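Hypothesis: this fold can be encoded by more than one sequence.
Test: take the structure tokens below, design a sequence, compare later.
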């Protein structure tokens, strides 16, 4: 063959090889290689994939398609989950923050009220009135504008622990005096030895006896006192030796009656109100005391409340006075115990 013909044949052969090579490369790019470990596609899946690939290639540019294909699956849900979690944590922190803030605000007031109680007890023992000017010196300047609230806290403790009411006697000088709920000797300390007033403890005991149908067993009394961390034979830092105080001192003073339960063998004992308790207080006053301690109202103790009302009526008839019934602020079921405390403190506003 001539050289010219041979050259033409070689050129045609090269073109064929070049065309077949380009077709193989484009086919390899168009259909991704399947993994050997992946299961074979179900019938008709290949045609759907090809149609889907063609439609996607026509709608998206190669760079955009490559970007979407390389984007890891599940990124959006993770981000949304993190975002939701972060929002939940923020909500929890925001909901918890006010509670901790309120607690942190109450702590200084509680501590200041405790300091004020010590000062008031000191003035009570000296039988001198307490002046607002002197009390303000014990309160930090930051909290002096909340004096009434601090005083209410202190007076509440004075009443429920020691049985002493704080009352304002001079609104101009803001002078306060002390009124014991019962006339125990030695300024409420019972014995001549120095000690704290026992009136509050006696009011608690009278309340337990009242709630138990005007007669409470000794076991019931000590069960109640154990909740106040007062135990027989163990000296208390406020009330001294409790068993001697309850079974001897208060009995001798006729505030309590301590007797053996009828036909009990071995012998068991029970407590009742003594004649001096009936003379110096009433069932309604004791019920009001219990209600204040439990942050409720006397009418919440329904059976005892009805008995106390009947007792008040009998007292009114005996004394010929009809105005000794409890005020509505004490008897309404919706009354606020704080307002009751305010009446006993009589703080000026």
């Amino acid at each position: 063959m001539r050289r010219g013909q041979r050259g033409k044949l070689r050129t045609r052969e090269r073109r064929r090889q070049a065309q077949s090579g380009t077709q193989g490369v484009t086919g390899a790019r168009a259909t991704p290689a399947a993994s050997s470990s992946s299961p074979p596609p179900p019938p008709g899946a290949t045609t759907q994939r090809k149609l889907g690939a063609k439609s996607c290639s026509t709608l998206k540019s190669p760079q955009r398609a490559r970007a979407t294909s390389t984007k890891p699956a599940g990124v959006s849900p993770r981000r949304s989950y993190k975002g939701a979690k972060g929002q939940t944590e923020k909500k929890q922190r925001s909901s918890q923050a006010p509670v901790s803030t309120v607690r942190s605000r109450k702590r200084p007031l509680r501590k200041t009220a405790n300091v004020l109680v010590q000062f008031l007890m000191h003035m009570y023992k000296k039988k001198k009135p307490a002046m607002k000017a002197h009390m303000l010196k014990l309160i930090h300047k930051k909290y002096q504008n909340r004096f009434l609230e601090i005083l209410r806290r202190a007076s509440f403790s004075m009443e429920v622990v020691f049985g002493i009411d704080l009352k304002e006697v001079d609104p101009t000088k803001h002078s306060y005096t002390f009124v014991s709920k019962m006339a125990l000797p030695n300024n409420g300390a019972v014995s001549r030895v120095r000690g704290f007033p026992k009136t509050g403890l006696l009011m608690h005991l009278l309340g337990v006896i009242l709630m138990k149908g005007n007669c409470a067993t000794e076991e019931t009394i000590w069960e109640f006192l154990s909740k106040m961390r007062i135990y027989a034979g163990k000296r208390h830092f406020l009330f001294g030796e409790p068993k001697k105080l309850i079974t001897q001192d208060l009995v001798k003073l006729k505030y309590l009656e301590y007797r053996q339960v009828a036909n009990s063998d071995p012998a068991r004992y029970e407590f009742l109100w003594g004649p001096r308790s009936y003379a110096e207080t009433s069932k309604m006053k004791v019920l009001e005391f219990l209600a204040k301690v439990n942050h409720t109202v006397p009418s919440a103790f329904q059976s005892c409340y009805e008995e106390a009302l009947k007792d008040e009526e009998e007292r009114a008839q005996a004394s010929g006075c009809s105005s000794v019934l409890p005020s509505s602020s004490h008897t309404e079921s919706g009354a606020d115990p704080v307002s009751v405390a305010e009446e006993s403190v009589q703080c000026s506003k």
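The longest helix spans residues 75-126. The radius of gyration is 44 Å.
Hypothesis status: open.
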